[in-house]
Design a protein that fits this description.
By secondary structure, the chain is an alpha+beta fold. It has one domain (about 10-60). About 45% of the residues lie in helices and about 15% in strands. It has helices spanning about 15-20, 25-35, 50-60, and strands spanning about 10-15, 40, 45-50. It has a three-stranded antiparallel beta sheet with strand order 1-3-2. A hairpin with a 2-residue loop joins strand 2 (about 40) and strand 3. The termini are far apart.
Length: about 60
């Protein structure tokens, strides 16, 4: 994940991702550790690329007939 030309608005904090996905902080941690959710670790905090979270959500969309 390149961060050289990224703006701060391109990244989400854990709390924002929790609200977007409707899951707990523990679930976010598990998803990051398992590799299901890409993140950057800054000291004791995660940052998530907005684009990666959007792709994650889209990949789990359920299509019903």
């Amino acid at each position: 994940m390149k961060i050289e030309n990224e703006k701060p608005d391109d990244f989400l904090r854990t709390g924002q991702v929790i609200k977007m996905l409707g899951v707990s902080r523990m679930t976010i941690s598990r998803m990051v550790r398992s590799g299901a959710l890409p993140a950057i670790r800054l000291e004791n905090n995660y940052r998530f690329k907005r684009e990666a979270i959007d792709r994650f959500i889209e990949s789990r969309r359920v299509v019903t007939a």
